[in-house]
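Hi Y.,

Following your request, here is the sequence exactly as I used it, all 294 residues.
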Amino acid sequence: MSLEITATDSPTGEFEAESEEQILAAARRRALRSRLRTWGLRIAIIVLWLGAWQLTATLWIDPFFYSKPSLIWDRLVEWFSSGTQFGSIWLQILTTVQEAVVGFVIGAVAGVVLGVLLGRSRYWAEVASPFIKALNAVPRIVLASLFIIWFGLGLESKVATVVVLTFFAVFFNAFTGAREVDGNVIDNARILGASRWQVLSQIVLPSATTWILSSLHTAFGFALIGAVVGEYAGASKGLGLLISNAQNTFDSAGIYAGMIIITVVALVAEWAIGIAEGRLLKWRPSQAQSAHEV
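Below is the corresponding structure, written out as C-alpha cells. Let me know if you'd prefer a different format.
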C-alpha cells in the first residue's frame, strides 16, 4: 500500500498541502468528466447503431420487413400528433401502465407475504413446494388466454396476467431472503422475549429487504410484459393492441414504435424504483468501489 500526499506548487517553488475543499472540488470534477465520457460513449454507440441501420435499410435490405429509424420516427410522430386507430396514444400508454401497476402491486405484496411466511416455515414450504413449482411451470400465454375467457377483454384479465408474472419474480427472492436471515440473531431475540410477530417484522423483513427490492426491478419488467401479452391476446386498447395491429398489417415501423414506448416506460419505472430503493436502504452502509476493473 502506498501513501499519496496531495500538494500544489506555490509561487515560491515550495509545496503547499491542498485544503479539503480543493480535494472535494477536484473529486467532483473527475466524477463529472467520468459521467460525461460515459454518456458521450453511450450516445456515440446509439448514433452509430441507428446510422448503420438507416444506411443498411436504404441500400441493401428491404425496409418493408426490417423498417428503418426514419420510418419509426415518422410513426412515433404520427401517433403522438394525430393519435392511433384506437384513440389517443396517451390513452394506450395509460391503459398499459394502469394494468401493469395494479397487477404489480398485488403480485408483489402477495409474493412478499407468502415468500416470507414460507421462508420461515420449513414444513409449509415443503407442503406448498410442488404446487408453486407446478404453477410457475404453466406457460403464461395460456393463462392469459384463460383469463380473457374468465374475465373478458377489460382490465381484470390483464391484471390477472400481470399478477401471475409478478408474483413468482418476487416470491422466490422473498423466500430466499427470509431463509438467509442469521439464525443466531433470531435465537437471541427470542431469548430476550421477542414474539413471533416481532421477529418477523423487526428482524426477518428488514433482513430480506435487499432481496425483495432487487426483485422489484425485474418484477416491473415482467409486469409490463404481462400487460402487453394480455393485450396482445385480446383487448380494446393498450400498447399490446397497437403492436398486435401493426403485426397484422405488416407495419414493422409500428411494432418498433410500440417497443420503444414500452422501453421508455420501463426505464422510467426502473428510475422510480431505484429512487425508492435508495431511500429505503439508507441504513445500509455504502460499499467502497473496487479500484480494479473486471
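The mean pLDDT is 80.

Thanks again,
Q.
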